[in-house]
Write a structure and sequence with these properties.
- The protein is mainly alpha-helical.
- It has one domain.
- The chain contains 6 helices and no strands.
- The longest helix is centred in the middle third of the chain and has 51 residues.
- The mean pLDDT is 78.
Length: 204
């Protein structure tokens, strides 16, 4: 529950940046989201290139590219949440390792020095628990919140962001650029799935 508070705080910060409530953090948020999207997008491009090298047809490549274009933001947000939860877990392991080192020193070193070492180890472990994990978790979950607040409204009907992927998918499936509404709805569902998985990860 305590870890979830940091995740929810980060999500709130990300949404606040996206809607303009924290203008001082907007440049940093935009830079972070671009970098994250680039990393995940590069992986998607590499997968697409691998399919092309295997002799995939142009229609197959267009269909994959259309789906990936709407999946990348959500997958990026989902990975950010997973990494945030990992940071919260890792800080506990780091703190435990430092504390074990202090206890070992207490057992094998002279009394005065070992007591000092144990006290230092406890202090460092407490600092690791209080600072490292939550800070990283807030930043990563803020990235997820920022992406969700920016991408999901843009994909809603009438905003036009899904028009190009739907057009590409229509060409791939039917050989025609006419994109029926069912394709746009299908792409919206695909785009929403990783965001829903990210939300589920936060709430679990």
């Amino acid at each position: 529950m305590r870890g979830r508070i940091w995740l929810l705080l980060g999500l709130a910060v990300g949404v606040a940046i996206a809607v303009g409530r924290l203008p001082l953090l907007a440049p940093a948020g935009a830079s972070l989201s671009r970098a994250a999207l680039y990393v995940v997008g590069s992986g998607a491009a590499a997968a697409l290139h691998a399919v092309a090298k295997q002799g995939g047809s142009s229609r197959t490549l267009e269909a994959i590219a259309a789906v990936l274009s709407v999946l990348v933001p959500g997958v990026t947000a989902w990975l950010a949440v997973i990494a945030a939860k990992g940071a919260l877990g890792l800080r506990k392991l780091v703190a435990l390792a430092v504390l074990v080192y202090g206890v070992a020193s207490f057992a094998y070193h002279p009394a005065l020095g070992s007591v000092t070492t144990l006290g230092l180890a406890v202090a460092v472990a407490a600092a690791a628990v209080m600072a490292t994990g939550p800070v990283v978790a807030v930043v990563l979950s803020a990235l997820a919140g920022l992406l969700a607040a920016e991408v999901i409204p843009a994909l809603l009907p009438g905003r036009g962001e899904v028009a190009l992927p739907a057009h590409m998918l229509s060409i791939a499936l039917h050989g025609s650029g006419a994109s029926p509404a069912v394709l746009a709805i299908g792409l919206l569902v695909f785009a929403a799935v990783p965001f829903l998985m990210a939300a589920r990860s936060v709430l679990r």
